[in-house]
Design a protein that fits this description.
Layout: E1 3-9, H1 11-14, H2 22-32, E2 36-43, H3 47-58, E3 63-67, H4 78-86, E4 90-92, H5 94-105, E5 120-122, E6 126-128, E7 137-142, E8 145-150, H6 154-169, E9 177-186, H7 190-196, E10 208-214, E11 217-226, H8 229-247, E12 251-254, H9 259-269, E13 274-278, H10 284-290, E14 299-304, H11 308-315, H12 319-325, H13 330-344, E15 348-354, E16 369-375, E17 380-386, H14 393-417
Parallel strand pairs: 1-2, 1-3, 3-8, 13-14, 13-15
Antiparallel strand pairs: 4-5, 6-7, 7-8, 9-11, 9-12, 10-11, 15-16, 16-17
Helix pairs in contact: 3-4, 9-14
């Protein structure tokens, strides 16, 4: 499997002002083409370090993908660095210049003189058309390496990659393909989950299996290498099936699936509706639910009952419950869920109340204590969770939102099985 380097150009990246999403995306696409990313580098808008990185990447006849630095301003130096590394001059590409003028003309504007620099490419290179922006790409060979420079704007880069770069790279894969999949889980600590699938995580195994933890969710990564996409896909399917068999209902989906999407699918399947009552999460669960297109089919709405008065007046939590047990209690969570279900006329309701910190905790009720309530047409229950007394406020709130959705998901599965 031929190696590749990915070079991300931009001072905004090296200063942390912008997050680089291009490199991880390209690495996944390369793997599917049978090319393994050996190194990723993020480089500031300076000629010398860009040139140095290009020369280093060329030493092993690698495939080099570069994103960024193809704009019209003085700090866009990718084309210059490629020329310096190749020891050639820049020259005008008439086809690119015509395309640039047409781009501006289609928008009823004259092309600024400065944009002409985008039609300059290293001598001997080939320009790659940009059908959705002003920055043409560049393809050239240097010391046996193939260099593909693309715009830094993600949708421009992805369009150019799929249309022009990927077809050229397919010949470089060496007959091997690496496909990846992530099995999404929630409900077990990473160490416990790891013990259940330990034999699948043996070093050197193909498919390779590993785990990544984030906000009470664990992603189980599967990387399969095979001579063809079909064989790799079969290997992924077989390993995923074994993971699901070992982990059971803590698995809620794969790849881009979300907990909110899994809950929505269960609600839609039974033509049921949901209402929310959120205190410490402050609307985060509602945001996750409405991130799903079409969620209005089953999600009716929610009440952000942060103050005790809102719990009492909007959800009908009894004053004696608040006085005797407090807002953060099993009893309050149950009454919040019952009140939300009644107020919005939903089949199911989910409630969350807790102490997100950093203050407000006590020995009896520490920071990170959260109660999650669920009300259905016949009953209401609540469970207690401890989500980290020493965790930051935003982490506790995000964990609470996801744990609550997972609790509802598993409740719906149990209810469905009756």
């Amino acid at each position: 499997m031929r190696d590749a380097w990915i070079l991300s150009i931009g001072t905004e990246l090296t200063l942390g002002q912008t997050v680089d999403t291009n490199a991880p995306w390209l690495a996944r696409e390369l793997a599917a083409l049978g090319l393994r990313c050996a190194e990723m580098r993020t480089i500031s808008d300076d000629l010398e370090p860009i040139t140095r990185s290009i020369r280093a990447a060329c030493e092993a006849e690698r495939v080099i993908l570069i994103t960024g630095g193809l704009g019209p301003t003085d700090d866009d130096l990718t084309r210059n660095a490629i020329a310096v590394a190749a020891e050639v001059d820049l020259e005008l590409c008439p086809r690119s210049l015509d395309a640039l003028r047409a781009f501006f003309a289609a928008r009823g504007r004259d092309m600024p003189d400065r944009n002409q620099v985008q039609a300059m490419i290293p001598r001997g290179a080939t320009a790659i058309d940009n059908t959705c922006g002003t920055a043409p790409g560049i393809h050239t060979r240097l010391s046996g390496a193939d260099i593909f420079a693309m715009p830094g704007v993600p949708y421009e880069m992805k369009t150019m990659f799929h249309r022009d770069v990927a077809p050229a790279l397919r010949a470089f894969g060496g007959g091997a393909v690496l496909l990846s999949r992530i099995v999404r889980t929630c409900g077990l600590p990473e160490a416990t989950l790891g013990r259940k699938i330990a034999t699948l995580m043996t070093r050197g195994r193909n498919p390779e299996v590993g785990t990544t933890a984030s906000l009470s969710e664990i992603g189980v990564r599967i990387n399969a290498t095979a001579p063809s996409r079909e064989q790799a896909a079969t290997m992924l399917d077989q390993t995923e099936a074994e993971i699901r068999n070992r982990l059971g209902d803590i698995v809620y989906g794969r790849d881009d699936d979300t907990l909110a999407g899994a809950v929505g699918g269960l609600l839609r399947a039974r033509s049921a509706t949901l209402a929310l009552a959120e205190s410490c999460t402050g609307g985060l669960i509602g945001e996750l639910m409405t991130d799903i297109a079409g969620s209005s089919e089953y999600f009716l709405g929610g009440v952000i009952s942060y103050a005790n008065s809102a719990k009492r007046d909007l959800l009908g939590v009894r004053p004696e419950t608040l006085d005797q047990h407090g807002a953060v209690s099993e009893q309050s969570a149950i009454e919040m869920a019952i009140g939300a279900r009644k107020a919005l006329g939903a089949d199911f309701a989910l409630s969350v109340t807790g102490i997100a910190g950093p203050g407000g905790g006590s020995t009896e009720k520490p920071v990170g204590l959260v109660y999650i309530g669920i009300a259905n047409p016949t009953a209401a229950i609540a469970r207690e969770y401890h989500l980290g007394f020493d965790s930051p406020r935003d982490v506790i709130r995000q964990r609470a939102a996801r744990v609550a959705l997972n609790e509802l998901r598993r409740h719906l599965l149990r209810d469905q099985a009756k």
